[in-house]
Amino acid sequence: MKTSASNPVIENVRRSLGRQPGQATPARPPILPARQPGDQEAELDLLLKEINAVAGVAQRMDPTRLEAALADLVQSQNVRRACLWQTPFIQELQLTALLQRLGVEIIPAQAEKHVLATCDLGVTEVDFALPQTGTLALLSAPEKPRTVSLVPRVHLAVLRPQALGADLHQVFAEASRQPYLIFITGPSRTSDIELTLTIGVHGPQGLYVWAFA
Amino acid sequence: MSETPSYIEFAEYSEHVPTNIPAAVQQATARFLGNRQLRIGEMPQWEELRQAASDIRLHTLLNLDSYLEKLEQQVTQAGGTVHWAEDAEAARQIVLGLARQHNVKTAVKVKSMATEEINLNHAFEQAGIEAIETDLGEFIIQLAGMGPSHIIVPAVHMKKEEIAQLFQEKLGVDAPPDPIKLTAIARTALREKFLNAEMGISGANFLVAETGTLVIVTNEGNGRMCTTLPDLHVAVVGIDKVVPDWESLTVLLKLLARSATGQKITTYTSFMTGPRRQEGESGPKEFHLVMLDNGRSKILQDPVGRDVLKCIRCGCCLNVCPVYKNVGGYAYGWFISGPIGAIFSPQVLGTEAARELPFASSLCGACVDVCPVKIPITQILLHLRRRVVEGDSIAPASAAPMVRSGAKLGALAFGVPWLYKLGTQLLPVLMAPLAKAGWIKALPAPANRWTRVRPFPAFAGGFRQWWHRRKK
Amino acid sequence: MQKVQLFITCLTEQFYPGVLKKMVGILEKLDVEPVFPENQTCCGQPFFNSGFQSEARKMASAWLKTFGRSDLPVVSPSGSCVDMVHHHYPELFSAGSAEHTLAVDLAGRTFELTDFLVNQLKVVDVGASYPHKVTYHASCHQLRGLGLKSEPKQLLRAVRGLELVDLPEEDVCCGFGGVFSVVYPEVSRSMMENKVKNIQRSGAEAVVACDAGCLMNIGGGLNKAGSPIKALHIIDILAEKGGDR
């Protein structure tokens, strides 16, 4: 690694600014204060509303309706293959078994990317959710690969209320030391051709968010 | 078009703007501004956010050396490698070198203005390595061999029929002139590239010094594809893109999408720190960050001009600029256009090459009102105009000496009271034959530059005489 | 009786002397006595905006000397010229110098006319009458340079019989921009034509502005388009029927 002593770019910057190596840096200017969250139900309502406003399909869900909802999703989205994160909550919901019962072939989430690309559906949990913008925030780990929410045509995200965060400050405080964080707000989109909005470009074409109590 | 220009001919281009450009650009900008207005209506703290963003960006620039050191330390600790490129050629060599080292046949690119600035695609082409743009608009103009007409929607000037024909020719597929079907064609074509490319190339919207984190925003998901699927990820980023910490992002991310397109936030925001940490994780095995100087460190010397480096590339100044909206992006001669282009290009390319740009503005100030980081664009334009005609500590004058002499004469005519008063009395008499009903339809060169567009008012004068008569 | 120094501005003097005469009339009607410093010429803005800051500095020095002789406030019918004095004059002289001090002092007491009437004299109704449909073009320096957003409209709304109609894109630049209009005439043309179209769309019989530069450009454009719509300075309207002595 080049030390800055042998780094002409940093040297040039220093010279232009008239600063010395190791010179102290004043504190960064203040940022705006954090937002106070409303009550959980209101926050959840807001989250679902915002996700739906950006062409996501978000609704409250409970385990009793889960099987029917999955059947509906599998049928309407023509899901033949799926890959899932294996988080404790997803295991608790028995999503893998339910999908298999619906005739969906399960591909391991750690499968090679070409194989993963044959999946129609990727299922993840949501690590944090930002109600004001309808944003889902997902971390990454060997058992929670980033590809599952990216490569398949449809992304289903299951949400528990504890994921609700008040704002960016809160999410960043928890996630800034993580090696990876992705914010997802709706399915992929573009207006590059004659400003005509098209949903579904490179990322998923469909985003389903099911919020459990 | 993103070749580094040796001279930017704004004047020439502005005299022959293709008819499709203003209409297309105006449609896009109106949409973005309309949505932005809605967003601002929802944000009572909008002006405080702008001020905070401006302060944070300036603070970072004034202490950039220490933030760059911190960034390097953090990226390295996270398992990435940082390279320092003093200029475009150095950056190209580093990226090409990495591509060759890894036997790259195909690289997939996220939209990155820094890579356009260094003309990276051309270098890859020459080296026989495929470098494919994956942002739909960039993909289209790459196939067409054109440059971008707008920073955010680069292919906005092209009609769907043109794009359909382009896809038919270049991709060999049946392409109906329907945006949804055309997007699906691009999705299929690029999916194969994403999965097979050995290398992903990106820029970054922000670099967080605190943790060595790269932040990339997209709507399409190509940013994620390029930085997740290939084993090698190389990012080329201007040294001015550094922010101190994640808390800074709480301000900047609230302003970026709202200013650019009027969305609350883009569909995807990726925060990536180093390559993947463990086997079995997805993400690149290797991460390289190429920090691009290319004149930015020199700009830091200029207390007025350096505010250009606060830019977060939202494109809002383009959206409000009446000049830009009447000429489009190509007129500015390089990858960066509109008001920001008019103050960036002369500082990076020099006022010799870009001397027409600081004058490509009526100084209306609409851009100053909207810039999320409060860059004093009109102030910098005036500063650069002075550099062009008079020269300053950064560069000598590049205007012809005749222009200078002309100004001196003009200053006499306008400034010396008896000369000025004499002119005021003589001109109405001298010009009377040319005036009809208060207007002069034609004047000789160079005044015909006015009259070719609309008539010139007749000289009247007479106030001073009237004033004296009253006193009696 | 309050006294003010008249800063008549080069363009208004050359092309709209009637506006200056009417301005004198309006001020006198409001018990303000104008004085006219004879040595004034041009504030130097065209030179400053073209990058000739050295020439502009000389002209600024002359202006400061002319108007600095008295400690009376200065009133002008042109937003861009007043903006030059407010924002750029202090920049032209080193902080701490006598000229800088004078520039700051004069910047604090130089007023564009609508600002003077509404914010200094606290007058909105000058007794004018103009029973026509009128639309307002917000000149860039007036609006963004001086922050005078509502003052001209307040004055127009108080004119008897005047119907103020909205101008689409009222705050978009008309394309004058001083030297800009001759450096890039085709771009200036596009901007001017857009402004003219909007004025025609507004249904107004007259368009009003507070800057001679805008009026030259817009007035010329309307003339070229064969339009009967008049391009007037706000002072022309404020002097109508009863606003003038």
Q: Could you characterize the architecture of this molecule?
A:
- The complex is a heterotrimer of chains A (about 210), B (about 475) and C (about 240).
- The model of chain A has no long low-confidence stretch (mean pLDDT about 95).
- Chain A is α/β, with parallel strands linked by helices and about 210 residues long.
- Chain A has a single domain, classed as NagB/RpiA/CoA transferase-like (Rossmann fold, 3-Layer(aba) Sandwich).
- A six-stranded parallel β-sheet of chain A has the order 1-11-7-4-2-3, with helices on both faces.
- Chain A is about 30% helix and about 20% strand.
- Chain B is of the alpha/beta class and about 475 residues long.
- Chain B folds into two domains: about 290 residues, Rossmann fold; about 55 residues, no CATH class.
- Helix content of chain B is about 50%, strand content about 10%.
- Chain B is built from 22 helices and 13 strands.
- In chain B, the strands form three sheets. Chain B has a six-stranded parallel β-sheet with strand order 1-10-7-4-2-3, with helices on both faces. Chain B has a four-stranded mixed β-sheet with strand order 8-5-6-9.
- In chain B, strand 11 and strand 12 form a beta hairpin.
- In chain B, helix 9 runs parallel beside helix 10, helix 16 packs across helix 18 and helix 19 crosses helix 20.
- By secondary structure, chain C is α/β, with parallel strands linked by helices.
- Chain C has 13 helices and eight strands.
- In chain C, strands 2-1-3-4 form a four-stranded parallel β-sheet.
- In chain C, helix 12 links the parallel strand 7 and strand 8.
- In chain C, helix 5 runs antiparallel to helix 6 and helix 7 crosses helix 9.
- The longest helix of chain C has 18 residues.
- The two termini of chain C are about 15 Å apart.
- The mean pLDDT of chain C is about 95.
- Chains in contact: A-B, B-C.
- Chains A and B meet through helix 1, helix 7, strand 8 and strand 9 of A and helix 2, helix 3, helix 4, strand 1 and helix 8 of B.
